[in-house]
Structures are given as C-alpha cells and as structure tokens.
Amino acid sequence: MVVMNSQKGALALMAAVAFAIGVAFPVNAEESGSAAAGSQSGAAKDAKETKETKSADDAKDKKGAKKSKTEKEDNSTVTLQEKPGVGVGREGNWKKHAQGAPSLKTARKKVEDNPKSADAHNDLGWALRQNGKLEEAEKELRQALQLDDTIAYGHSNLSVVLLDTSRVGDAVKEGERAVAIDGTSPIYRVVYGNALSADGKLDEAIAQYNEAIKLRADYENALYNLGRVLHMKGKNAEATAVLSQALKLDPNDRRVMDLMDKLVQ
Fold first, then answer.
1. How many Å apart are CA 236 and CA 10, to the nearest integer?
2. CA-wise closest residue to 100 among 111, 88, 112
3. Taking the complete model, does pTM exceed 0.90, yes or no?
4. Whose CA is closest to 41, among 112, 96, 109, 115?
C-alpha cells in the first residue's frame, strides 16, 4: 500500500500515472490560477463585458489573476482577485464572501431599493446561500426567475441551492435550463454536471465536465469533478491523470489531495 506523504511525492506519482496511460489535458500557463466555485453571484451585470456574467471566473488582469465583481457596503464596485495557488474558497463549501457574493446587508439594501430587479433578488439569494440560509435563498432566487426567467445564472444558482437541499431532480432541471440559455459558460456546465452526478447519471455528468474543460482548459473545479466522477465509475487511472492536472492548477485544493490519497493507496 502506497501512502502519499507530501505534495511533491503526489505530483511525481500522478505525473507518472498520467504518462503511463497517455492521458493529457492542456494547461494554459498564463491562466493556471485556481478556479472559482461552481456557481456565481449576479452582482454588477454587464453583458458586454463577458458572456460568463456574474461569475468569479470571468476575467483576468495582466498578471493572470482571476477577477470577479462584487460590491462594498457603500454599494460601490470592488474587484476581487483569486490569485494562483491559494485555494480560495475551497474550505466550507464556499460560504460567506467567497465567489464574489455580496454581503447580506448590501444585498438586502439592493432588493429594498430595486424590488422589481431580478439581479437584486438573485444577488440576495446567492448571498443567503453563502451564509447557509437555504430556504430564504431559494425564495429569493425563485423571485428573481419570476421577474426574468432568461437569466442563466439565476437557474444555475437555484440548481446549487436545490442540490444543497437534496432535491436532485429539480436541481438537474435548473442546471439543464441554465445550460440551454447559455451553453458557453463552463460554470453552468459544471453545476449541471454536479446535479447529474448526484442523480446517478455519471456518463452525462462526465460529458458536461468535458464540455466545461473545452470551454476553459484551466478550469480546476471542472477537472476535480471530472476526476471525482471517473473515480465513481471505477476508472481510477483516468481519474488520477485528470486530478494531476487539477493539482497543478491549485496545489492547495484539499478536495483533490484527499481524493488522490484514496487513488494512490
């Protein structure tokens, strides 16, 4: 039985396995920072800026750090950066302010000021989810979708909340709806894939993760989930190769390291 004693040893072992089975995934050296979580807030909408509206994965600065938009308490916009290799938001299921979710105070004020705004209700719903208030989160997200059923991020966020509350079938439907509205977002693909995998539809989930990776080769979260589901199917050699790529992108992702421990024993 082999036990992984260090990240260095793990990387060496994973590289050897990947080479042995001939599986490789492209990694863009300029965009090798850790990917954000599988869904996103609706703060600071600007369709011209990006097709991945409201995501923590949407842009990068000249140094290659990921950017996302959220708001300060005074409602002014602030740009957050998730720098390479820090594993931001991996612990605690991305609660609190991870992923660009606005504060509850800011989000509630936005709804008070704009009660007919789908974005405002979406932002509050996501902020509530990040703080573990799932029932309230679902209510706000459904209100957002009543106001505008065409916002893909609203359906994606609702899918996450429904999966949090073990309503897998409904989570699948919302994830499917998000991808139908915007199939170019790797985040929506991963959220949909997570719902599908929870529903036991592993091959369909794998297809969604692969689509996400085609859209963004350095999407570490997509690689992790692909490796996770490949492991569920018993394809451990393929899972190891995929996870080796994820670990290169974010050496501090505890989820990947824990799964690798199981695979290399």
1. 15
2. 88
3. no
4. 96
